[in-house]
Amino acid sequence: MKPVHHIKEQVEVAIGKVGLSVGRLTYVKQGPREYTVFAYNADWLDDPAHFAVSPDLPLIAGHQPRRAPSRVDSVFHLALADTEPDAWGRRVIARAHAKLRRNNPRLAALTELDYLTAVDDFSRIGALRLRDADGQYLRSVAKGERAAPPLIELRRLCDASRAVETGQDTEEDLQYLQGKGTSLGGMRPKCTVLDENGTLAIGKFPSVNDSRSVTRGEVLALRLATRAGIEAATARIVELDPTPVAVITRFDRTPDQGRIHYWSAASLLQASREHDHSYFEIADAIRTYCASPTPDVQQLWRRLVFNLLITNVDDHLQNHGFLSVGYGQWRLAPAFDLNPFPDKDRESKTWLSPDTGPIDSLAMLMEAAAYFSLTPDAALQVLAEVYVAVTDWRTEARSAAVGLPTNELDDFASAFEHEARRDAQRRLGYPSG
């Protein structure tokens, strides 16, 4: 009988800019079986300012194990899983490792811990950090080198990402992209960068498969969201003639590069990726965990109206987040990953409630406004503010910050001009035209 390969590795989990030690994470893999175990440090448990770093890690002594509840879920406790590389980052890591194995077939296959620790400490989302047995932050670069490249390197980043997409990447391309991935996003090419003022940002590149200017569309959506009274990530287009790159400021850092603890909505709800969940559940969680629940649930409803009017249907739980405000309390994070989808039906991925199913009409949202602490008059006021912002989408699209060419406006028209918008117009009593 072939012996079962056994792996057991341990890393220290720290938090914040100063890297205060929180506990230890142990990763175990025995053949196809794998699990993790986390244990808080006694000092953290004794600290009067302590809090649970993950919703599935209560503040208790001893070892707390986790196995992935399904094949699509993470083996790591939820707040740690939020820091894993996204699908694009995993693709870069896997391709680089595959090239190494061609030269060294005896090299072991990647483990889930390898993916987790491949994200550079400088750019890891939120406040959690990982250290090895020698106390070194994992994937940290040598002193004096940049962990995240400056904007002037966008062209190199874009070219290397394009090479990965087309299968023409070199070892140099992959080495350059290693550790610069993100946790916020999906399969689209992207990279962590430093803005001109040293602010951490995400650079999102066009895909070779795009049939429209997706990067301009995302910046357009984020800027319209701000005009609609939504707290949204700051975004602009940087032109790499002829390539438009979306540069989106990270919201989990302070001006002095302090780190803000982050949970996705999936983590807050302790949700398996196999199961459907609803905005009613998110609203209930906001009322339980957030420092200012009423403004946050009202803001959530505003975002639902906005998503419907711009046809942003990629609203799964990983695309909603929360930021720590200290003492175990949270607030709704700025909106991110907002995209108009002119080629899709207006039906949300996340349900409105367990009874109603996905959001597909304005009527559903208006009927549910009270659940989000809005009176009928207040809901109409929010609807008016969102409607006015979204209706002016062509002006914003042609602005210098977005730069969508006039001949490409019609590529997005059906995402903004549809029956839900006309319904909003009727409800508000605005003249047609």
Please give a structural write-up:
The protein is of the alpha+beta class and about 425 residues long. The protein has helices at about 40-45, 80, 85-105, 110-115, 155-165, 170-175, 215-225, 265-270, 280-290, 295-310, 360-365, 375-390, 395, 415, 420-430, and strands at about 5-15, 20-30, 35-40, 65, 130, 190-195, 200-205, 235-240, 245-250, 260-265, 320-325, 330, 350-355, 355-360. A 5-stranded antiparallel β-sheet has the order 4-3-2-1-5. It has a 4-stranded antiparallel β-sheet with strand order 6-7-9-8, sandwiched between helices. Strands 10-11-12 form a 3-stranded antiparallel β-sheet. The longest helix is centred in the C-terminal third of the chain and has 18 residues, at about 295-310. It is globular, with a radius of gyration of 22 Å. About 40% of the residues are buried.
